[in-house]
């Protein structure tokens, strides 16, 4: 038996590495198992970080090609250097993954390099070497959900991983799935010159989003050039020398048709990754979707084994995993770690961005909650006008009797940043009046949030 630890975390994604660092800060002897050559998991290596790098680069390309002239900035002969754009993305990824390595060294977290397997309670095997530990944390994340009849080769038919590595702009990209990943990557390649068609089984995009906001979002993306085939399912895909032929059928039945594509992106969601972990073999309970079952404190049914992040129930978001990692580390140290799942924001990093926190109108109606709405468009916001980015609006939902904020939905420029104000307000039980009475800098995009809060009481000032 090799070295013993207080905590061994399996997986170095945002949940795993943050849990390991926080546990080490609290005085525990910690190791983190990672089989990749670099730390950071899916998020830093092939997910959140590289996709945002390409999103930002593609926004710059589109702005130089189409938008700068409106501001009096004349740019002639704009050209795409995709190889340089991809190289920059790689540099961003490397900087982030090396940053985690630095944090491990700083906090004295041991990186156990290799594939980890739970050999028994209190024992983790890593490439043939066993390590003892008082606590095991499963933080193995998730993987792309496969679609029957569509075989991924990461060349012509790709997951998000392959879509980040294309070495040329496809003539026609078909995205299967109208969720966050599909819309973000579809936006990247549309800006760089591809024709993009999004095929979605449901009759709307961004499932789970407030429907009013989602409809406006769809209209804006369609105006930008994305094409949508809603209420449509993909039943087969055949890759050939001339691209991919997809078989489409109406979701509610009807005649099939075919659709040609140069590249197909399968983005129908993600599923918990537990392959090779050994958890089920030692009796760790999994739910019907293959996720690790935990109680309210991230404990599995096996004493000393815990789980966090995408591998357990809840939204598959890096920041949700991070907060769970901190909460669990603090509980293992005898503190009272806690995550408020009612105020976890979600963001779609298209442009404009779509950000949400709390409940939607549909959820409030289903729960029988009386509520009031406050809305304010970015067309009436001075800073948005100055930026030339007036698409979208802010929508706040507040309890009709108490005025307590119940949800916020922002479609507009930098919505992912603006949503933090409402998340903080909701965390402390604030009312719409509290936000409305808070002085906001002028001119700022945040003023749209204040105006929406005023509008809950019917007294918006600038519309």
Structure commentary:
By secondary structure, the protein is an alpha/beta fold. The protein folds into three domains: 4-144 and 271-339, FAD/NAD(P)-binding domain (3-Layer(bba) Sandwich), CATH 3.50.50.60; 157-268, 3-Layer(bba) Sandwich (FAD/NAD(P)-binding domain), CATH 3.50.50.60; 343-456, FAD/NAD-linked reductase, C-terminal dimerisation domain (Enolase-like, domain 1, 2-Layer Sandwich), CATH 3.30.390. The chain has helices at 14-25, 41-46, 48-67, 82-107, 160-163, 180-191, 211-224, 318-332, 361-366, 382-387, 415-427, 432-436, 447-456, and strands at 4-10, 30-34, 110-113, 116-120, 123-126, 129-138, 142-144, 157-158, 172-176, 195-199, 227-229, 232-240, 243-250, 257-261, 263-266, 270-272, 305-307, 346-348, 353-358, 371-377, 393-399, 405-412. A hairpin with a 2-residue loop joins strand 12 and strand 13. The longest helix is centred in the first third of the chain and has 26 residues, at 82-107. The termini are far apart. The mean pLDDT is 97.
Helix and strand content put the structural class at alpha/beta
Question: Into which percent range does the helicity of residues fall?
Answer: 25-40%
* Chain-averaged pLDDT: 97
CATH topology of the largest domain: FAD/NAD(P)-binding domain
Shape: globular
Question: Can you tell me the CATH architecture of the largest domain?
Answer: 3-Layer(bba) Sandwich
Describe the main β-sheet briefly.
7 strands, mixed
In total, the number of strands is 22
Q: Given the structure, what is the number of helices?
A: 13
Strand content: 25-35%
Q: What CATH first level of the largest domain would be assigned? A: Alpha Beta
- Contiguous uncertain segments of 5+ residues: none
At the fourth CATH level, what is the homologous superfamily of the largest domain?
FAD/NAD(P)-binding domain
């Amino acid at each position: 038996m090799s070295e013993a630890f207080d905590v061994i975390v399996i997986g170095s994604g945002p949940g795993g590495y943050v849990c390991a660092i926080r546990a080490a800060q609290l005085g525990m002897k910690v190791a983190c198992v990672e089989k990749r050559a670099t730390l950071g998991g899916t998020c830093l290596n092939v997910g959140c970080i590289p996709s945002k790098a390409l999103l930002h680069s593609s926004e710059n390309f589109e702005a130089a090609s189409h938008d700068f002239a409106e501001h009096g900035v004349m740019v002639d002969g704009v050209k795409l250097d995709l190889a340089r754009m991809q190289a920059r993305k790689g540099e961003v990824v490397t900087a982030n993954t090396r940053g985690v390595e630095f944090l491990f060294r700083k906090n004295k977290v041991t990186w156990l390099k290799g594939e980890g397997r739970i050999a028994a309670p209190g024992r983790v095997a890593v490439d043939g070497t066993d390590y003892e530990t008082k606590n095991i944390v499963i933080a193995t994340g998730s993987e792309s959900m496969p679609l029957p009849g569509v075989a991924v080769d990461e060349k012509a038919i790709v997951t998000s991983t392959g879509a980040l590595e294309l070495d040329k702009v496809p003539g026609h990209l078909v995205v299967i799935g109208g969720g966050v990943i599909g819309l973000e990557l579809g936006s990247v390649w549309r800006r760089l010159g591809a024709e993009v068609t999004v095929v979605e089984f449901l009759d709307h995009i961004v499932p789970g989003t407030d429907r009013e906001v989602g409809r406006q979002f769809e209209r804006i993306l369609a105006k930008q050039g994305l094409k949508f085939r809603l209420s449509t399912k993909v039943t087969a895909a055949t890759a050939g020398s001339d691209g991919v032929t997809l078989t489409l059928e109406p979701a509610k039945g009807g005649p099939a048709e075919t659709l040609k594509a140069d590249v197909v992106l399968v983005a129908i969601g993600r599923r918990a990754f537990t392959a090779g972990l050994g958890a089920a073999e030692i009796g760790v309970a999994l739910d019907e979707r293959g996720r690790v079952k935990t109680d309210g404190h991230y404990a599995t049914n096996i004493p000393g084994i815990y789980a966090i992040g995408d591998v357990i129930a809840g939204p598959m978001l890096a920041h949700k995993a991070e907060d769970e990692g901190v909460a669990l580390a603090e509980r293992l140290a005898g503190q009272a770690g806690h995550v408020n799942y009612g105020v976890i924001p979600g963001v779609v990093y298209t442009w404009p961005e779509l950000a949400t926190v709390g409940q939607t109108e549909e959820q409030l109606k289903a729960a029988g909650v009386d509520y009031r709405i406050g809305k304010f468009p970015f067309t009436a916001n001075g800073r948005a006008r100055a930026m030339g980015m007036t698409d979208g609006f802010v929508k706040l939902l507040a309890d009709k009797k108490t005025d307590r904020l119940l949800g916020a939905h922002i479609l507009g420029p930098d919505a992912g940043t603006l949503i933090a104000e409402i998340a903080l307000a909701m965390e402390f039980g604030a009312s719409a009046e509290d936000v409305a009475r808070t002085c906001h800098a002028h001119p700022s995009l945040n003023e749209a949030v204040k105006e929406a809060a005023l509008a809950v009481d019917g007294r918006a000032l600038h519309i």
